[in-house]
Amino acid sequence: MSRYRGPKLKISRRLGDLPGLTRKASKKLAQAGEHGQQSRKPSEYSLRLEEKQKLRFNYGLSERQLSKYIKAAKKVPGSTGLILLQILEMRLDNIIFRLGLSPTIPAARQLVNHGHILINKKRVSICSYQCKPGDTIQIKNKNSSQNLAKNHLSFPTLASIPNHLELDTKILNGKVNAIVEREWVALQINELLVVEYYSRK
Predict the structure, then answer these.
(1) Are residues 106 and 58 in the same domain?
(2) Backbone phi, then psi, for 3, in 5-degree steps?
């Protein structure tokens, strides 16, 4: 299944607040779809599926990408759910979003794809690039690139930059200081249910 390109508000109405997907909020209170009004008790499977979908849509992943990340997280010693979140949070498109250089993760992906981003002074155009502690992230020294980022910085989506990142707003230079801690993940999610979803497939 490819990356979702449909209406974003419909997804956020169904799954709740997804800061990486859209900064818009729907005025409608009921869930999307003809069954949105019904209040049935969700099954265990539907709860696990919903958490998995939150992760997928927030970070803009295909089903194949997410299952690859799950397999990679299982190979690392420690809590699989936490390691999965850390892998997703350290993706380049997400780091740009968390630094406030773009309003959403899809917008960050566009910045990367169009060659506006430098990692350690080298141009990187791969959104899934895994950032590491010590990496420096710069906006290309070009007026159009710089203006794009400055516009987004004046209207931040998230309240603050997480403590594993830092940003010099004058020169638009960001730095990754450490691996993200669980409390700084912006998405409200139960990652254990996502791991359960894939372990039962």
Answers:
(1) no
(2) -65, 145
